[in-house]
Structure formats: C-alpha cells, structure tokens
Amino acid sequence: MSFIKKIFHTKNYLCLYLNDGRELMVPAEFLRKACPCSLCRHQPARQKAKSLKVLDEDAQIASIKKIGNYGVQILFSDNHSTGIFSFDYLYQLILSNEFCKSSIKSR
Ligand SMILES: [Zn+2]
Hints:
Elements: E1 4-9, E2 13-18, E3 22-27, H1 28-33, H2 38-41, H3 45-58, E4 61-67, E5 71-76, E6 84-86, H4 87-95, H5 98-103, E7 105-106
Antiparallel strand pairs: 1-2, 2-3, 3-7, 4-5, 5-6
The protein binds zinc ion.
Zinc ion binds at residues 35, 37, 39-40, 80, 82-83.
C-alpha cells in the first residue's frame, strides 16, 4: 500500500504525509506499546505491564528506516528496533486511537 507520501520523525512523534494531502502524527510511546514484533507480542502480560509503565514516560523515537513501500522500522530510545510497522498496520493503529484520529489535518 502506498498511501504514504512522506514519513519522518521527531523524538516524540512519527509524522506521516498521505497522498491525499492529509498529515498525521503518531506519538512515540503509543507506537512503542503497539510494537508488532514477536518479542513484544509474546511478553507475559505482567512483565509487559511493568515495562510499559517505565516506557510511558521514556519511549522516544531515535531513528526510523523505511522498508520499501511496505512499512517502517523504528528504533526506539530504549534500543528496541525489531518491530516493523507496515503502513497497513500503522493506519489501523491510527484509526483505533482517538488522539491520532484527531491529529489528522487536511492541507
Ligand atoms: Zn517489539
């Protein structure tokens, strides 16, 4: 899927420019929690809750790497980088979150 025209990041947000002219911002801590890698997906719930508490204040985006037209790999400030966010997944995440939805701006 190639509805994303441009993608960049700040410490606290992943910013997406869509082909239809909309811009949107996804908070880093939200992405960190939604990391789709098997490590994060299969963490025991208790351990996860504990680590998320720490991450709430800490999670920032250190760098991103585009994976073709498919998605983006995000290196977080806690050195976690195994999650690849496909654009489809990102879009689903955005639609499932009120803040992200409300951040969508038309130009
Ligand atoms: Zn992960």
